[in-house]
């Protein structure tokens, strides 16, 4: 198989993207290592508000139906009063990577953000997270700014933005 063929997403079948549901946070936490490996920092940032107050723009990619469905990927985000569609997290389970789920989650979120009047998308990552930066560039994020002390946190963050065209 050539490198180009390997880089192309395999077709996604049997996976539906919809809004998060009651119980999804618990499912994600049970499978946390499948999404994040041994990284602990993201665990504390999975606040229930994304599954309750922002559930209309938080998404799950599901394999199967009903209570037995598995979450293959998810995106937690919301539209801020600034007009930014803010993506807090996107994660794809280890057995779902390479299927284009991250891209589909972003596309679905973008449509929801536009419906709610967003003028741009915004996401953050660590300045050394080259995979995340490359993914966001492929998703059309053209504005990349390194903030050495993001929001006074003492941590550097790459602030990534993508202007959205009005429908």
Describe the structure in your own words.
By secondary structure, the protein is α+β, with helices and mostly antiparallel strands. It folds into two domains: 3-118, Aminopeptidase (3-Layer(aba) Sandwich), CATH 3.40.630.30; 124-167, no CATH class. 27% of the residues lie in helices and 28% in strands. It has six helices and seven strands; from the N terminus they run αβαααβββαβαββ. The chain has a seven-stranded mixed β-sheet with strand order 1-2-3-4-5-7-6, with helices on both faces. The longest helix has 15 residues, at 101-115. It is globular and about 40 Å long. Residues 1-10 have low confidence and may be disordered.
Brief characterization of the structure:
The protein has helices at 3-7, 24-30, 32-36, 41-44, 101-115, 130-138, and strands at 15-19, 59-63, 70-79, 84-92, 120-125, 143-147, 157-163.
Keywords:
globular; disordered N terminus; single chain; 6 helices; 167 residues; alpha+beta; 2 domains
Beta-strand residue fraction: 25-35%
Please provide the ordered H/E string of secondary-structure elements. HEHHHEEEHEHEE
CATH class of the largest domain: Alpha Beta
CATH topology name of the largest domain: Aminopeptidase
The largest sheet is: 7 strands, mixed
- CATH-derived architecture of the largest domain: 3-Layer(aba) Sandwich
Helix content: 25-40%
Number of strands: 7
How many DSSP helices? 6
Number of domains: 2
